[in-house]
Amino acid sequence: MILPAQAGQAVTEVPAPTVSGAIGQLYNTSTWARSVLLRPTGSEQCTVTGCVQKFAGGDIAWSSRTGARVVVNGAVRTAWWDAGGPFGSHGYPTSDTASGLRNGGTKQVFERGAIISSPATGTQQTTGSIHLAWLRSGSESGYLGYPVTGERAGLPDGGAFQAYERGFIVWSPGSGAHPSTGAIRERWRQSGLESGELGYPTSDEAPGLKNGGSAQQYQHGSIVWSPASGARALTGAIRTYWNSTGGQDGALGYPVSEEYRQSNFVYQQFQGGTVYWSAATGAHSTTHGDIHNRYVALGGAAGRLGLPLTDKLPRAGGSVQQFANGWLVWGPGTGTQIVGHATYKVWSVNPGDFGWPLKDSWTDARGAHVAFQKLETIWNDSTQELYSAETVDASTVVLLGDSQLDLDSWVEQGARAAGYPRQVVRSIGGIGYVSGSSVGSATDAVLLDRILLPQGNPGLVVVNLGGNDARIFATDAAILSQANKLWDELRRKYPRSTILVNGVLSRYDSSHFQRRWVDGMLMREAALRGWPHISMAGTATIAGADGNYLDNIHMNQAGHNKVAPLYASALRYVLGK
Questions:
Q1: Residue 507 in contact with residue 546, Cβ under 8 Å?
Q2: Model-level pTM?
Q3: What are the pLDDT digits (tens) for 319-366?
C-alpha cells in the first residue's frame, strides 16, 4: 500500500498484510470469500487454539478442529466478538456466515452453539442442549422459527429456557432439552409449566398419532392432543392404565376431559369411555356400550354400584363387569341387569344352568332375589347360601335324587300319602353321592350350589341316592365320606327340617346284590348318625314289581305305583304319623 508523503519527503509504499496457510488457502481459492472480505487489514493472529485474520469485510478464523471459516461483518460477527470471539462461549465457527435466510435472516454455527439474526427477532445466541434441540426442530426453517430471546436460566432444579417465534425450548439437567409449542404447550402452561404437576418435558412432541394427534411426555405425566379432543393431561395411575389399554389406539381413544378429583376417587373421560381410580380399587374403565350406559344411568361411581373393580369382561356370549356393590350382567336379548356378588359367583360357574338375568336384583325379608331366565334365586346373608325361590312350608317335601324320581315316582307318591302335597324335586340322571353327571356328584353339586335347593323350612327333605354309586362300584369309604358331607350340608341349610335318608330300591335277585349292599351300608351309617332312614333293599320284589322294569334299573309307572304304598307306610311310621 502507498502512504501519503509529508512535505519535502518522498512517497513510501507499505506492503499489505500477507495471507497464508489455511486462511490463505480459503481466501485465495474462494471467489465468494474474496468478494465479501475484500482486502486483509491485519496480519494473522495465532494462539495455541487457532488463528484469526481480520479483513475489511470480516474475519477468517481457523482451528485444527473446525478448519477455516468466514465470519462476515454484521450483527452475527458483532455478537460473536462481544461474547469473546473464538475464546468465548461459542468457540470457533464450524460454518461460514449464511445470509439470505428466511425473512432476511443470517446465521453462523460455532463449536458450542449458533448466532442467528433477523430483522424481526434481532440477534440471538443458542448454545448447548437447547441449540441441539433447535437444530432437531429444523432450525429457523422448522416449526420453532427464529429465537426471540437468549437463553434464560434460573428455573427450578437448575433449568433454563429459550423463546422462539412459535414456541420455546425448555431444559433441565434431569430432563434434557425439548421444544414446547402449540396447544400442548398451552395446556402445560395451564398446569403451571415446569413448576406444576407435570414438571419438565422429557420428550419432544410426537406427531403422527391416530387421527392427526400428537403427544408429549413430562416428568410426571403426558399431554395428548387431537383435533377432535383438544389437549388433555394424563397423570398417575389413570395414565398408566390408559397406556396399558393401547393409549389412543385402544378402546378408550383420546382423553376428552381432564382428571376430576372426588373425595375418595378420581376419574377421567375418554372418547370410548371413562377410567376410574381409587387407592382401594385401582384403575378400571367402563367402555361405551350397554354396561357403561347402564352404569352412568345408575349414577356412576357415586351411585348404587360404586367404583368398578374390573374392566368389562366377555362371559358366555354376553358381557359382565364387577363393581364395589355388585355386577352388571348383559345378555343378548335381556339387557343389562344388576346381580349381587354372591349370586354372580354361583351363576358364573355355569351360566347355562340359570340363563341371563331378566331384571335387577331386589331384596326383601327372604334375601336378595335375582330372576334368571330359567329360575329365580335368593341369597341369604344369615346362612351365606344361594337358594331357589320356590316357597316352602311344613307341607312341602324337597326331594333330592337321581332318575329314580322320574315319572310319578314311588318317592313322590309316598310323600303325598304321608301328608306332603307340595313337592320340590331335584333329580339328575346318573348322579349319586360319588357318581357324577354334568354338575358333578350330588354332594359336590349341593356344596357348590350347582344344584339349588329352595329357601325356607320345608317339612321334610328326602335324599334318594346310592343306586348310581352301586352301578359304578364306588368304594364304601368314598360313598360314606360323600354321604356324610351331603347330609351335614343339608342340615346346615335346613336346621329346622326333618332330613330323611332313603336306601337303594332293589330286587332280591343276584343282579341287584351291589344295590342291596350299598343300601345296607347307608342305612347303618344313617342309624349311627341319628338320621331318619328307610331301607329299600328288596322292596321291588316285595311289592311284586320285579316284572315292571324298563331296564335292569328303571321302573315303568306301574312299578312305581306298586312300590309307592309300601314306601308311604314306612315313611309314616318313621315320621311318627
A1: yes
A2: 0.80
A3: 999 999 999 999 999 999 999 999 999 999 889 989 999 999 999 999
